[in-house]
Fold this sequence. Notes:
This protein is mainly alpha-helical. The protein has 21 helices and two strands.
Amino acid sequence: MNLRIKPLDEILATAEKKTLHKTLGPFQLTMLGVGAIIGTGIFVLTAEATQLAGPGMMVSFILAGFVCAVCALCYAELASMVPVSGSAYTYSYAVMGELVAWIVGWALILEYAVAASAVSVGWSNYFVGVIDRAFGWHIPITLAKGYFAGGFINVPAIVIGALVTALLYIGTRESAWVNTTLVVIKIIALTIFCVLAVPVIHMENFHPFAPLGAVGVGGAAASIFFAYVGFDAVSTAAEETKNPQRNVPIGLIGSLVICTIFYLVVAAGAIGSVGAQPIIVDGVGLTPGSAPFNAACRLAANAGTLACSDEPLAHVLAVIGWTKVASLIGLAAFLALPSVILMMLFGQTRIFFVMSRDGLLPEVLSTVHPRFKTPHVVTVITGLFVVVAAAFLPVGELANISNSGTLLAFAMVAIVVMMLRIRDPERRRGFRTPWIWVVGPLAVLGCLGLFVLLTGAAKTVFIVWASAGLVAYYLYGYRHSHHARAEKAAGR
């Protein structure tokens, strides 16, 4: 069977012929990673985690963070070996062949593009709150939430998605510096939250710790996993990085460490200061975002709970008496969440760029703008996909759908690292994953475990999407890839 494997040396040679401009250093990469990670997961999905696990979301954050940590170690080794755009797609092509690479690349669309949509919706929640508090303008729910989230169309999410797409169209350097500024705002906001919330922690708010049991904690971990997604976007910027063998691992691991510390302290502060018990009816926890859950949240008895808040961190500070600071936290999220959308779009356009460069997608998608030096065609296409999804779908389900694609890609990266240790042990590695035969299997099993715990809707969407991807591959990619052309030229 011809797997159409693209050797690492060929991948590196292709990148040299049609490469992107190298502008990013270790600090910018770390900031790109932090910018991609800290976002809707902590600013918005904390409420969903509350409904799924209660105070047990502390364990959920640890579980999801652990899976991401072992995956990040695998990513760091591959990125140091193959410093080109493409992330898990490129690595899979080098080891497991064209078909697997296509499936991974197709799954990455769910990771990046759908994640950008989810963050756009999360930003919309804070935007609505900021406008209401600052000017007394109440945006009607029909224009503030999508059709499948109880409204009609999410106009603010459409606007922010379009604006970030335009920024990314202009150029990587400009996008990176804007991102760095927004990352600083997010770090300051989370630091202020911790300083104000942690001192008023009451240990009784942690009891009962897991009101919905281990299943609730596991389900929250699968959802909260979205809060860590984004560090791998650093690897998609490898081709635009100075000294990538050194700087990409720094960006990957550094950004994940910074974000994990913040998440645990923020979660502890939120739970301990105001409580985080889920809404339970007749002994059953309601599904976040469902019609019964939304109805329960409209009841006066539940309206002030953390689980029902669209702006959980601002809500916590308002409840403990820091109303003006709560408004500032909402403003910080409003200003900073676009950096996450930017990084998600950045990662997706680079995946498309490399797949096009390999012939699996039309070559026009790898066209680089003559002035801005960016893959402008695919940037516009991806932006349109993002705004359409953000316009109609709820943030929680978008996050779960995004996680389904991410978990497949992460598991594949761990498998590729282990296979390369056997097939190509002498190749230079700027970074070596420690204890690979422990870390690698843990990464694979962790990803599979979290995938099983995702919602049924998310798993169904993933299966349908993957099936559509296979059809697209055999209709176009199989016949037009560079390997197909080489086989045709050789008479095979």
